[in-house]
Specification:
With 329 residues, the chain is an alpha+beta fold. The protein has ten helices and twelve strands. Strands 1, 2, 3, 4, 5, 6, 7 and 12 form an eight-stranded mixed β-sheet that branches. A four-stranded antiparallel β-sheet has the order 9-10-8-11.
Length: 329
Amino acid sequence: MIIETPSRLHLTLLDLNGSLGRIDGGVGLTLKKPCLILEMKHKGSGIDVEFNNFQNLSKDTLNDYEEKIRTSAHLMMEHLQLNGEGYKFIVHENFPSHSGLGSGTQLSLATGELISDSTGNKMEVPQIAHIVGRGGTSGIGVASFDKGGFIIDGGHHHGEKTTFLPSSASEASPPPIIARYDFPDDWKVVLVIPNIMKNVSGTKEVNIFQKYCPIPLREVQQLSHLILMKMMPAVLEKDLDAFGETVNTIQSVGFKKIENQLQKPLIAEIITILRDAGAPGVGMSSFGPTIYAITDSPKDIVSAAHDALDEVGGNIIETTAQNYGATKR
């Protein structure tokens, strides 16, 4: 059994103020590339993890993928009471860990769904996400796996999540999806992933949420206004300029402003270079370091991206939105 999952962009968190009784909320976009392809086979006992291109992967990536597969498999097996079962997982395609593209959620959900389906215990994706511990802050990765497209989630009620925490430290269930639209097929996405260490993760990320939240209410209101009255209509009306303008504006509003301010100067430099090259909208996904440009003519953007990465190196990926979720074969 093989599953292929998309990646995702996390454009922004919506409400890290919480004055209306809910926190978090998110806006995101599902991507066709890069993708994860994971195969599972039954074996006698235990859990094995193999990589068909391990020679091209860093030790950190190998360790991260293996840890997430093993953890998710054990959680699912414990939930389904699969004592004595064994599985072999083979990673055929992967994308970078801790890069802002959501590899952890896709890998955990893929592992959970493969085990669930193999036992005949068909589960809804949000249920699997809760079992394997994903979606505790943003619901974008879970919804990308499930449905794809352009997604907005409604965050968590204070009764379930009482404080500001990243997904890695939250045990809340995935939030409800309040809007989901097909994204225009002719809009291209250029990903620029500089070869630098992620600047924020783990305990540092938890501390940032605690230090900077709650975000001022006026910024949450401004961001909500932009999303509701500019970004969402732009997707439905296929207005690339309006969508791009919103992407550019939200980089300096709310929690996304904090995320950008905490980056190395190179991130802001690359964003400026891509905008100057003509990209209608350029932003950083999650805590980075992946930068995305939304455009209908990627040639000049890709050329500018190569120039921007000349000294540090990195990856440039041309992709489009994926308006469906993970697929199995």
